[in-house]
Amino acid sequence: IALKIINPIKKTIINQNLINTKNADTMFRMRKEKAPRTQIKIEYLKNIKYRIYIEIFNNELYEKLKYSLENHISFYTCSLGLSENLANFEYVGEYNYEIKKGNAKIDSVINLEEIDNKNISIDIEKEYFTDRFSLEMKEDREVIKYGDILFERNGEEIEIKNNNYIEIETGENILWY
């Protein structure tokens, strides 16, 4: 897969009051000695929008996924991390691509395991960040592999030098991760 950031990443922190329901006999009468309430800060993303690129070699799985995306059908409700953060999706299309090597402006996030740092051109006018993500999971959602990704906060292109990349017929350049 590859992931493109379309809207700038904006974060907000909201304090939330949580109730320890394991120690509460009833919701209106809680024992003070058990500290039934706690306040924690949770970071949320605001107005985010991504484009996900996928390539599937299993024809049966490909047909099921394409049908589901075109008809806005999901097996589980889409969310961004937590069940409270519901997400929406739409099918954009299917495009041909070419594998190329050289200098390019990449529209997707970059898995830092897939590129040598010296092949990334840093523009001081842009806002670059790295984050650790789960790259592979088992079916029970146990993470098998973590990796660091590089992204530009506003969704702007990242320049690379002398590296393999994917050029999509829409003119976008991505890196699989």
Secondary-structure map:
Layout: E1 2-5, E2 10-19, E3 37-46, E4 50-53, H1 59-70, E5 97-106, E6 110-111, E7 120-121, E8 128-137, E9 143-152, E10 158-168, E11 173-174
Antiparallel strand pairs: 1-4, 2-3, 5-10, 6-9, 7-10, 8-9, 10-11
Describe the protein in words:
- 7% of the residues lie in helices and 42% in strands.
- It contains one helix and eleven strands.
- The mean pLDDT is 89.
- The longest helix is centred in the middle third of the chain and has 12 residues, at 59-70.
- The strands form four sheets. Strands 5, 7, 10 and 11 form a four-stranded antiparallel beta sheet that branches. It has a three-stranded antiparallel beta sheet with strand order 6-9-8, with no helix packed on it.
- The chain has one helix spanning 59-70; strands at 2-5, 10-19, 37-46, 50-53, 97-106, 110-111, 120-121, 128-137, 143-152, 158-168, 173-174.
- It has two domains: 1-12 and 38-50 and 97-177, no CATH class; 56-94, no CATH class.
- The protein is mostly beta strands and 177 residues long.
- H and E order: EEEEHEEEEEEE
Shape, principal axes of CA atoms? globular
Based on secondary structure, the structural category is: mainly beta
Residue fraction in strands: 35-45%
Count of individual beta strands: 11
Radius of gyration: 21 Å
Classify the oligomer. Answer: single chain
Kindly report the average pLDDT value. Answer: 89
How many angstroms does the end-to-end distance come to? Answer: 6 Å
